[in-house]
Amino acid sequence: MTDALPFPAARSAGPVRRAADAALSRFTPTVTIAAYLFLFVPIAVLIVYSFNASRSTVVWTGFTLDWYREVLADRSLQRALWVSAVVAGASALLSTVIGTLTALVLARRTFRGRDGFSTLVLAPLVLPEIVLAVGFLVLMAAAGIPLGYFTLIAGHTLIAVPFTTLIVRAAAAALDRRLEEAAADLGADGRQTFFRVTLPLLLPAIVTAFLLAATLSFDNFVMSTFTSGVGTTTLPLRIYSMLKTGITPEINALGTLLVAANILVVVAVAGRHLKLLLKR
């Protein structure tokens, strides 16, 4: 008698579970669509109103390309864009090199204090960026280093190194060590093994780390606020100064151009990976 008690409960659990699965299958797409709308509708509104003939950002009066002409003719925006591009490229290159070497050390070497060193490298991920920016500014002031390109690049590198280290470290940990051992068995020394086996296998992760570091640098605002000097105003700082007078279609046009540039980069990278897959 007692053994028969669980069976009704088990039989009743079937319809309940099926109902829950059905509700979840309907609920999940709805939430996903709502999340994508929340993310992309503001971007769509920005793009649409970048073609608005009026200076108002809420009243549509007609179609025009004048705001794009103003953006392309604005010398201060061109200068800020150049500064952001130089800083992003230099800091991404430095952080990728430092992150790659650090990741290889953490993934391949065992030494005393490795866990503490790893925690120290990844500490900027959990510390508020404004704390890092203030501390970095105090250090530069104590060292007598003037604010400019050097401080911008160094500060952005400090922010990006933990990200590049994590990406390359994950790839290095998943790397098949037997390939390197096979290269050594065939007579390759350590340098040849690294440049002909290890580095090509890690190249996708390194490229990903570089692109992420460049994006973080290009969009950075907090660290740039504390480390930029005269003549080294980055694009985010320039946009923020423009926002103090109100949102104008010129800012919408600039945002649309940045969105288009990001899409082109994503398409180029995706096309590259697609070609590699087709060759295989």
From TrEMBL:
Stored SUPFAM superfamilies: MetI-like
Signal peptide range in chain numbering: none
Gene3D superfamilies linked to this entry: MetI-like
Bilayer-crossing regions: 27-51, 80-107, 119-143, 149-172, 193-218, 251-271
Family matches, as PROSITE patterns: ABC_TM1 (PS50928)
Keyword Transport: yes
Keywords assigned: Cell membrane, Membrane, Transmembrane, Transmembrane helix, Transport
Record domain ABC transmembrane type-1: where: 81-275
Keyword Ion transport: no
Pfam families tied to this protein: BPD_transp_1 (PF00528)
Intracellular or extracellular location(s): Cell membrane
Membrane topology: Multi-pass membrane protein
Primary location: membrane
Homology family: Belongs to the binding-protein-dependent transport system permease family. CysTW subfamily.
Name of the protein: ABC-type spermidine/putrescine transport system permease subunit II
Organism whose genome encodes this protein: Inquilinus ginsengisoli
